[in-house]
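Give me structure tokens for this 52-residue protein.
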Amino acid sequence: MKKGIEINGTVFANQGDVDNDEFLDKFIAFIESNGWGFGGGSKQIDEDGNDI
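Here you go.
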């Protein structure tokens, strides 16, 4: 049986905004650079947790 990590949280920039596409590009590059894979999704939200 394989073990993995489930991620559930939010990412906000200290200044300005985080663009979902830019974040995913960097996140997937990090995942792949370590020989890992990612299955899941993401969405853009505001500071109150509302979908944008």
